[in-house]
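Hey, does this match?
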Amino acid sequence: MKIIWHWLILTGAIIITTYVLPSTIVFAPLYIVFIASACLMFINMTIKPIISLLTLPINLLTLGIFGLLFNGAILWALAYVIPGFQIGSFKGAVIAALIISAVNWILGKVLYHE
């Protein structure tokens, strides 16, 4: 049940980011957002911890900016893989990743408190 809550919160964060940046993130039908958030959640749970550990020295040198660029790259790559989910530019993907992370954290604290 916990994973479903996290998935729904991430979906809400992507939808809110779409309203904040309407020209950057575009999705065609609504179910595309659920697919994109499921893929993003899978990547965050499996691949991202390994990559974060391997790139820890670069992250320390750049004071976390490399992690933000990496999140933007993951979002940018998802836009190429998922049809109907589009992101305007890499810069927009990085800004969207920052907003998605912040909204995901806020919604997680408000809606799902353990």
Q: What stands out?
A: The chain has one domain: 2-111. DSSP finds five helices and two strands in the chain. Helices lie at 2-20, 31-54, 56-61, 65-81, 90-111.
